[in-house]
From TrEMBL:
CDD domains: LuxR_C_like, REC_NarL-like. Pfam families: GerE (PF00196), Response_reg (PF00072). It comes from Streptomyces violaceoruber. Residues 2-122 form the Response regulatory domain. Transmembrane segments: none annotated. SMART domains: HTH_LUXR, REC. It comes from the Bacteria. The keyword Phosphoprotein applies. GO terms for molecular function: DNA binding. GO terms for biological process: phosphorelay signal transduction system; regulation of DNA-templated transcription. This is DNA-binding response regulator.
Amino acid sequence: MRVVIAEDSVILREGMVELLTARGCDVVATVGDGDGLLAAVATHVPDVAVVDIRMPPTHTDEGIRAAIQLRAAHPGVGVLVFSQHAEPAWAARLLAGEASGIGYLLKERVSATADFIEALHRVAAGGVALDPVIVSRMVNAGRRPLDRLTERERVVLDLMAQGHSNRSIAELLVVSERAVEKHAASIFTKFDLPPAAADNRRVKAVVAYLQESRS
């Protein structure tokens, strides 16, 4: 199996080369950016490319954009996205065309090298290898944030909308304040409200809740 690796971290890149070579793979090229990936695939036409999402120059989505271009130009080359970032929208775009020879694994969730190698072989053979986290987020992406909440989270958010503090909510629900904080954190995540110093996530969650409740 011939492999191209696109990873901007030199340590990770060299580690993958050693791992794949030891498992009988032929690493025909290693690159550190999206342009290098496209050039390497055009030159070597490997069986599969291992691609990180965020690479130079902006470290945002260069890798995944290059992977989509790669698939358009070389549909026979498998693409295994191997990243620490779960981006279901990009996974959906990769799968939008010919949904074969595609993989998306999260670095921190690969607990055994054998699992990585097996996924790589599957993708190279035209199969699909998606981390369950990616699948779950792709499914939930089409649902309203309100529909993603558990029954208890809905109750907590409703009480937030009524102006109750976490302590007040805890007293009303006869639970610990820490339990309410965990529910609130889950609500913020499901409403795509990451921590930010300038934003009041509680207010934004309530506004979104009231807007969705009226729709």
